[in-house]
Specification:
The complex is a heterodimer of chains A (168) and B (287). Chain A has 168 residues and is an alpha+beta fold. Chain A is 29% helix and 16% strand. In chain A, strands 2-1-5-3-4 form a five-stranded mixed beta sheet, sandwiched between helices. In chain B, helix 10 packs across helix 11. In chain B, a hairpin with a 2-residue loop joins strand 4 and strand 5. The chains are: A alpha+beta (168), B alpha+beta (287). Chain A: GO terms for molecular function: 2 iron, 2 sulfur cluster binding; metal ion binding; oxidoreductase activity.
Chain lengths: 168, 287
């Protein structure tokens, strides 16, 4: 069965690797590139933990073959921090609002929220809940994540929807 | 939860894809892969090779024709949902796309893939059947053929497609200006496949009587289930006629559907879709 040469950019670095055709993008990122920030939960597209950006659009890396994204630009959670390694805007908002519990689902939330913020649309809480419905948190820490999303995309930037004293 | 070993081809054109399909009828076409790769991860499907058409830009186009939208098979659900052209010319298509999975799924999943996969609970095959969209397919042996969506879906995951035929374009007729449409679906969780759902289209005469009322149910049988309310033609479209009609229209499904609950959910969806369609038709008539 065939091996495929993939040539793609991940978090600003170009990689060329020969991989089995059946290798998922998620396994490619984790095992071939050592980028283990992308988490694998269900491996059939339901949980959202493995969400990455492919050419700027969110995608399940468990439902993509590495071969399919040859030529594409991929961003993972590792590529969403500031250049000095400090947390990015989305990561900071999640931290501020307690939108992180055990952390397993967090990379998927960071990526999904990054896409939402990049779209630049003003969203109300219902739209945010719908937009984030593809990310499952088994700690059920949704309220913090939603509050972070409200801050990032809501009509009233600030701490709307959050009752925590965070000092910001 | 990993797919079995497989061969992979990425043809550079539709013609190249058709050549590979002709030579290997056990191969599967990979478009967005949001259903195919999931079943391959479960090893419910083990094709010999994947023919990845995902990067064929020629099939990722949309044309605004007179009375219809001609849409390439590779248009993704998210683009159908957000495209101002689709929202303006055929809003039920944008609405159907919005209810598929989640954003990350809709970014990859394609119109042609959904049509060819023919999941009986899927929104796009149902809408295509209701509007009797034209499904353009190509193959090396038979050239281009055009199927009518109302006849295309034969059973669960089964269509009229031959193994070497590729869905390339879908032509959706737009609705008459005075038609109203309604959509509703019931799912346990957001983004799940529906327990049942319905689209309805209602056209009224000038004095608010029903000229035509039709609907499609999905998730209730092994294919989109079409309903034409011929017995209501000429009646006043009062809001209270639809529950009785839905119950009667679905009577023949009582023994074929799994469980009374699903039947009741479906009947409720059907009635609500008609109510919304009729209300929208009335609202349109005021403008």
């Amino acid at each position: 069965m065939s091996d495929i040469v993939v040539d793609l950019e991940v978090n600003g670095v170009r990689y060329e690797r020969t991989v089995p055709a059946r290798l998922s993008l998620a396994d490619f990122l984790r095992d071939s590139l050592g980028l283990t920030g992308t988490h694998l939960g269900c491996e059939h597209g339901v949980c959202g933990s493995c969400t990455v950006l492919v050419d700027g659009r969110s995608a399940r890396s468990c439902l993509l073959l590495a071969a399919q994204v040859s030529g594409a630009t991929v961003r993972t959670v590792e590529g969403l921090a500031e250049s000095d390694g400090s947390p990015g805007t989305v990561q900071s908002a999640l931290a501020r609002h307690g939108g992180i519990q055990c952390g397993f689902c967090t990379p998927g939330f960071v990526v999904a929220l990054t896409e939402l913020v990049a779209e630049g649309k003003e969203l109300d809480e219902e739209e945010i809940r719908e937009a984030l419905s593809g990310n499952i948190c088994r700690c059920t820490g949704y309220h913090g994540a939603i509050a972070a999303a409200v801050e990032l995309t809501g009509p009233d930037p600030g701490c709307a929807g959050c009752d925590q004293e965070c000092g910001s | 939860m990993k797919p079995a070993a497989i061969d992979y081809a990425r043809p550079a054109s539709v013609a190249d894809a058709l050549s590979i399909m002709e030579s290997d009828v056990e191969a599967k076409v990979l478009a967005g892969g949001q259903s195919l790769l999931a079943v391959m991860n479960f090893r419910l499907a083990r094709p010999t090779q994947l023919i990845d058409i995902g990067s064929l830009a020629e099939l990722n186009r949309i044309f605004d024709d007179d009375g219809s939208l001609l849409i390439g098979a590779l248009r993704c659900h998210r683009d159908l949902e957000t495209d101002p052209l689709v929202r303006d010319r055929l809003p039920p298509l944008a609405e159907a796309a919005r209810h598929i999975g989640h954003i990350a799924i809709r970014n990859r999943g394609t119109l042609g893939g959904s049509i060819a996969h023919a999941d009986p609970a899927a929104e796009l095959p149902a809408l295509a059947a209701l509007l009797d969209a034209e499904i353009y397919v190509d193959s090396r042996q038979r050239g281009r053929r055009v199927y009518h969506a109302a006849e295309f879906f034969e059973a669960r995951y089964t269509t009229l497609l031959e193994p070497d035929e590729l869905v390339t374009w879908i032509r959706f007729p737009t609705l008459p200006a005075d038609a109203g449409w309604g959509f509703t679906e019931a799912a346990r969780r957001h983004g799940d496949f529906a327990i049942a759902g319905a689209f309805a289209v209602v056209e009224l005469t000038g004095d608010r009587r029903l000229r035509r009322a039709r609907a499609v149910l999905f998730g209730v049988t092994d294919r989109p289930w079409l309903i034409e309310a011929v017995e209501l033609t000429g009646r006043v479209a009062a809001p209270d006629i639809w529950r009785e009609f839905a119950t009667a229209a679905m009577a023949e499904l009582v023994d074929t559907m799994e469980g009374a609950y699903r039947w009741r959910v479906a009947a409720g969806c059907l009635a609500r879709a008609f109510e919304r369609a009729a209300a929208n038709a009335r609202a349109g008539a005021h403008e």
